[in-house]
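We were asked to recover a plausible sequence for a given structure. The inputs and outputs are reproduced exactly as logged, with field labels preserved.

PROBLEM: sequence recovery
POSITIONS: 226
GIVEN STRUCTURE:
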């Protein structure tokens, strides 16, 4: 597929169906945020192995405005191989004007039994004060990851810039970008800050289930004004 742009020796392009296996790995690493805790697996009551076909289904569904939408990912490619990726969308700017949280809930409902979905809803209530609500009409970054051997080369910053440029061309009125990151992920926070983001909000949770199943008990909201 043709490049959106280039960064040094890397091609930055839209993700395709051939990238799905790599994107599943990206989502898993982003969810774990450098730990062995996997909140999505806990929320859905699945093992990591069981989540792979679920994530494949989500990506193939490619629902606009979702953190799991295949078409929302940009990929950095080196010598024909994907080495980094990040997803982005503008909150509630989709054909149905649905929030990403509602889209995600619908996706979950499609793959869970009624009893499993009820358990998911019960777990989700624990996140009310912990997760940061997404602001409408703001570009959202989610599920970014770079293979270890390609980290510290500025690739993620280049992907952020490419996502912003791509969406700003489509929507010139776009004025704000957000990223939601676990507060202990100092490397990702530093990458965002180098790209012009500032921390504008932080949440905490002292709930035992959050401590047991999430990478950290605090999240930060990073913001960039365009």
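RECOVERED SEQUENCE:
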């Amino acid at each position: 597929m043709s490049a959106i742009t280039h960064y040094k020796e890397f091609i930055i392009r839209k993700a395709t169906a051939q990238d799905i296996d790599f994107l599943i790995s990206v989502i898993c690493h982003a969810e774990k945020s450098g730990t062995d805790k996997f909140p999505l697996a806990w929320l859905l009551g699945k093992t990591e192995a069981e989540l792979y076909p679920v994530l494949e289904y989500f990506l193939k569904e490619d629902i606009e405005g979702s953190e799991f939408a295949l078409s929302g990912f940009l990929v950095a490619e080196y010598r024909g191989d994907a080495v980094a990726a990040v997803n982005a969308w503008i909150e509630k700017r989709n054909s149905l004007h649905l929030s990403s949280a509602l889209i995600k809930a619908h996706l979950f409902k499609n793959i869970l039994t009624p009893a499993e979905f009820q358990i998911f809803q019960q777990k989700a209530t624990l996140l009310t004060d912990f997760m940061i609500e997404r602001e409408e009409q703001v570009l959202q970054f989610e599920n970014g990851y770079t293979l270890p051997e390609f980290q510290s080369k500025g690739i993620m910053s280049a992907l952020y810039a490419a996502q912003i440029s791509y969406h700003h061309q489509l929507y010139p009125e776009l004025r704000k970008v957000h990223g939601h990151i676990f507060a202990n992920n100092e490397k990702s926070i530093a990458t965002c800050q180098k790209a012009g983001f500032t921390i504008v909000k932080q949440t905490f949770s002292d709930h035992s289930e959050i401590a047991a199943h999430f990478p950290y008990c605090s999240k930060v909201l990073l913001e960039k004004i365009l």
